[in-house]
């Protein structure tokens, strides 16, 4: 597989995980394309943890009317 194909795979992996790549600048997408395998794994893990915490934050926001968060 060529390096260019790896770059597309990285972006596809991020997009499939829910990263809003369409809202990023070309320069920002280039940074993501250049991630190492370890960086990609770390970023995906962080997003997974943030997504898991999201419902709790949303529930607090709904209960408190967003006053505290």
TrEMBL record:
According to its UniProt entry, this protein's organism is Streptomyces poriferorum
In its UniProt entry, what is this protein called?
Uncharacterized protein
Name the domain of life this protein comes from.
Answer: Bacteria
Which stretches of sequence are listed as region Disordered? 1-20
The record's listing under InterPro entries reads: Aroma_sacti_dom (IPR054632)
Residue ranges with Basic and acidic residues bias:
1-15
């Amino acid at each position: 597989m060529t390096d260019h194909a790896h770059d597309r795979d990285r972006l596809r992996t991020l997009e499939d995980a829910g990263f809003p790549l369409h809202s990023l600048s070309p320069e920002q997408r280039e940074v993501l394309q250049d991630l190492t395998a370890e960086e990609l794994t770390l970023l995906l893990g962080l997003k997974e943890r943030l997504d898991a915490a999201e419902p709790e934050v949303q529930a607090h926001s709904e209960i408190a009317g967003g006053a505290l968060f």
